[in-house]
Amino acid sequence: MSAEQDYFIMVTDHEGVEHKLAAVEGWRVMEIIRDHGLAIKAECGGACACATCHVYVDDEWTGRLFEPRDEELERLDDAFEVEDSSRLSCQLLFNPELNGLKLTLAPSDL
């Protein structure tokens, strides 16, 4: 098993079930969630043109992420139920420093 296969993120789905998902360095967190079959729309495919990959980052991780760019903040204005911990998962590129990242899928109309 390579070190890359040891990377993971923890995602709580819309039913409150927590999933441990294998993560790949360089992938968008949205791609990791989608490729594991969890219910996330991500309609624009990661172009930051919608807000359908909205997630809530766990409190212990919010200070460890880079600040959202203006483009992401503008897209979050289109999302529902935005909180201080809201991020667009398409804007979070997974790297080893994010190993173990915990987040929750925001409500959607899926």
Brief description of this entry?
With 110 residues, the protein is of the alpha+beta class. The chain is built from three helices and five strands; from the N terminus they run E-E-H-E-H-H-E-E.
List the helices and strands and how they pair.
Blueprint: E1 8-12, E2 18-22, H1 29-35, E3 54-57, H2 59-62, H3 70-76, E4 86-88, E5 101-105
Parallel strand pairs: 1-5
Antiparallel strand pairs: 1-2, 3-4, 3-5
What are the defining features of this structure?
5 strands, single chain, globular, 110 residues, five-stranded mixed β-sheet, alpha+beta
Query: Number of DSSP strands?
Result: 5
Task: Give the count of helical stretches.
Answer: 3
Order of helices and strands: EEHEHHEE
User: Uncertain segments of ≥5 residues (pLDDT<50)?
Assistant: none
Tell me the fraction of residues in β-strands, as a range.
15-25%
The biggest beta sheet reads: 5 strands, mixed
Strand order of the largest sheet: 2-1-5-3-4
- Helix fraction? 10-25%
Shape: globular
Structure description:
A hairpin with a 5-residue loop joins strand 1 (8-12) and strand 2 (18-22). This protein has a 5-stranded mixed β-sheet with strand order 2-1-5-3-4. It has helices at 29-35, 59-62, 70-76; strands at 8-12, 18-22, 54-57, 86-88, 101-105. It is 16% helix and 20% strand. It contains 3 helices and 5 strands, in the order ββαβααββ. The protein has 110 residues and is α+β, with helices and mostly antiparallel strands. It is globular, with a radius of gyration of 13 Å. The termini are far apart.
